[in-house]
Amino acid sequence: MAIGSATVRINSGGYLFLLCPALGWISISQRTFIEPIIVAMATTESKTGTVDPGLLDDLVARNLVQDTTDRGALAERLKAGPVTVYYGVDPTAPSLHVGNLIGLLTLKRFQMAGHRPLPLAGGATGMIGDPSGRSSERNLLDDDALAGNLAGIVPLLQQFLDFDGVDNAAKLLDNRAWTVSTSVLEFLRDVGKHVTVNQMVAKESVKARMAGEDGISFTEFSYMLLQANDFAWLFENEGCEMQVGGSDQWGNISLGVDLVRRRTGEKAFALTWPLLLQKDGTKYGKTAGGETIWLTADLLSPYRFYQAWMQVDDDELRKLLLWLTFQPVGDIDGIVADHMAAPHERKGQRLLASELTELVHGLDATNSAIEASSVVFGGSVDEIQQSTFEMLANELPTATLDRSQLDQQNNLGSLLVKGDVVASKSEAARMLKQNGISINGQKVAPDGLLSRSDLRHDRFCLVRKGKKQVYLFHFAD
């Protein structure tokens, strides 16, 4: 995997390495300190330049602002010129999920408005785990697990932002670069002396855990100090003036703002957005079938990702279009009104699903997901691409059958049995008599046969039993 001028690989033990042109292969395991730890995907720093003065107003109009430091001062700073802003994610899983989408898209909004984004992979903080929003302590991750998770997360951080060819190029960092070489005594002197225990126990995430049955360990209690130190280090070394995150991060982020002020005497800024919640108040992170909405295809296919957004309720559309798409705010009310005029056509869901799937998985995968969805829900198969059938082979019950069985008289009943569409030839005969079987969208007669001319791309045919059960036959040589 290439990242800017460097290449990432994982060895058999799960350790993450970089191939840097000047340095060769470098281990970035937890035990190794290098600077920078991942790679500066771009080193251009935009000190001057044109910015969109309406960025904060746009975020407010999208209801993407919950808490900020001094709102007036923040607005003036964002209008004055490019600001370096960071958003961090801990590699606690092998991929990012829908809960991280707002953060990634917010960084992109800042970059589009002329500011400089710093996506941060929390290789150090991920070793501990953030207690925010949790009732119990996370399992601690070892080097191998962290390296594997980083390998899955880094490409996602890369794909949402521009790292080359622009003045405000993004830069990817890992907080192990400035954390692993710091001794306990240095950390207590440079960070701990600036923070009171009173401040720490006043944070909602800490109070909630202290009130719980299991309490909170010193390890997780110290998490906010590490995150605050990240902000101070980035302020001092990258000129980063602003941190953004979800509203459950406000305590950690505001502590970082205070640490910057105490260590440097300078002003830093912070902004949080509301958590992406469903109507019942739970986090928005599962499909209708209970799958986590991951952002990588190997954990959730583009088809299932697309379908997750096709299933959202009508009354959630406006919020999701505002928060998760780049549709102009002024257009969204019209889009929703057009949708509500004929909600059964699901125009709003189609727009949301297609835009998000293209952002996460690319245009080709989105087109295949749209075609596959059309086929599954009764659309024509005549113009469907081979790649769409191949996608469906991973989503539908699929039987691989012998091509020699085609064009044989009354072969349909036996093929339906072999393809696990029906349990017996008698059930097949009954379903055929009741016009309950269709091939490629066409009803078939009881004495019908399946021939080579029924195949699409010389190997696939779609079988529907009743209205809702859909199967794919794949004929091999």
Your description of this structure?
The protein is α/β, with parallel strands linked by helices. The chain folds into 3 domains: 2-273, Rossmann fold (3-Layer(aba) Sandwich); 302-391, Orthogonal Bundle (Tyrosyl-Transfer RNA Synthetase); 396-476, Roll (Structural Genomics Hypothetical 15.5 Kd Protein In mrcA-pckA Intergenic Region, Chain A). The chain is built from 19 helices and 15 strands. It has helices at 55-61, 71-80, 101-112, 143-159, 176-179, 184-190, 197-201, 204-211, 218-221, 223-238, 250-264, 302-310, 317-324, 329-341, 347-361, 363-376, 386-392, 412-418, 425-433; strands at residues 2-3, 6-10, 16-20, 24-27, 67-68, 84-89, 116-121, 173-174, 240-246, 269-273, 398-402, 437-439, 442-443, 460-465, 469-476. Strand 3 (16-20) and strand 4 (24-27) form a beta hairpin. Helix 13 (317-324) runs parallel beside helix 15 and helix 16 packs across helix 17 (386-392). It is elongated and about 85 Å long.
List key phrases describing it.
single chain, 477 residues, Rossmann fold, Tyrosyl-Transfer RNA Synthetase, Structural Genomics Hypothetical 15.5 Kd Protein In mrcA-pckA Intergenic Region, Chain A, 3 domains, six-stranded mixed beta sheet, five-stranded mixed beta sheet, 19 helices, 15 strands, elongated, disordered N terminus
| Radius of gyration, taken over Cα atoms and rounded to an integer in Å | 27 Å
| Estimated share of beta-strand residues | 5-15%
Kindly provide the name of the CATH class of the largest domain: Alpha Beta
**CATH architecture level-2 label of the largest domain:** 3-Layer(aba) Sandwich
Number of helices: 19
Q: Which regions contain 5 or more consecutive residues with pLDDT less than 50?
A: 1-47
Tell me the name of the CATH homologous superfamily of the largest domain. HUPs
* Cα end-to-end separation: 36 Å
Strand order of the largest sheet: 5-10-9-6-7-8
Secondary structure: helix percent: 25-40%
